[in-house]
Amino acid sequence: MTAQAAVITPKEDPWQMALRQFNIAADQLPLKRGIRELLAYPKRELTVNFPVKMDDGSVRIFTGYRVHHSTVLGPTKGGIRYHPDVTLNEVRALAMWMTWKCATVGLPYGGAKGGVVVNPKELSREELEHLTRRYATEIGILMSPEGDIPAPDVGTNPQIMAWIMDTYSMHRGYSTPSVVTGKPLAIGGSFGRIEATGRGVTFVTREATRHLGMPLAGAKVAVQGFGNVGAVAAYLLHDQGCSIVAASDSSGGVHNPKGLDPRALVKFKEDRGSVTGFPSANRVTNEELLEVSCDILVPSALEAQITASNAGKVKARLVVEGANGPITPDGDEVLEARNVLVVPDILANAGGVIVSYFEWVQGLQQFFWTEEEVNQNLERIMVRSFGQVLRGSLDRKVSMRTAALIRAIERVADALMTRGIYP
Description:
By secondary structure, the chain is of the alpha/beta class.
């Protein structure tokens, strides 16, 4: 095995990544040992193994998880992921990142995450519904509008949230729309929720380019992960005058240094199932996309994409994390040494949970906002949070990631100390 292969195989464990990031920030704070240990580990973890009847009459057993990292600031909030590579450690990491994300942008939530080990593309609609309803039943002991509120993530969508909401409501005997967010509008979803994460990425990208003195109009952008987050960020940045030079999905990517039409690419992917084969573009791998010539890189796929082995080949001046955990701590060190500005996931992609919060509030009050109101409030919170994290980064002379984590950890630790240790 070569030295390079040893770095990237096996893939870095997301939980170890999350703990390393936490410890780097926690070292900057005067935390009592017991408080630090409490913040470092999940509050509760649920593993479920459940049967699903398939279309051919057979029964398959699936494994699912739901992890609550912290409940100090309020109900736990976090998405549900359907992916064949889901592991308990991945869900633990994602739950911890959700705690810090909510705290970074000032939401009254703790962090949670869920996942099922499954490739949803291999299931029929009926099988997907059966799996979703059974999984929702299994984790129903944790879910409630006041306690734990799921949302979509990789491999899930508004329809899956609708099935979860309906399942929970059937068990309660009355409709409970606020038990999940990311629902369709027809059953209490919020305007602006589908575009929220990508729109938030766009807002912080704009703020970061202003800080760097880099013109946004004309900037070349590469997007890894042309899904709900990446595609929206691509066409909104294109609307701001950026040139989208590369995009990829799980099947591969396309590159044209003269620019791609992101909305045409969205339509092409809807028709063909992938961006690969898009006319007037060269095919690239997901790994090659990270190294194309561009000003702004938006990794919006999965964890541990930029590592010590390839961070030195990233050509962008600005990296905005649309995904959770796409850069490993070792990759962070390489980028920081090269003066590449990284806007971290717990800030950059917080738009989704911010508008999920708006949806939850609307559902509890049964009072709904216009799309303009949603987007204005989203922009206000994203711009304010970016400015606060940037000031912390400059004042402490630390990376944006560490500054965001310090802000988040301080907020949760302060709330914990104020509440006290029960009993």
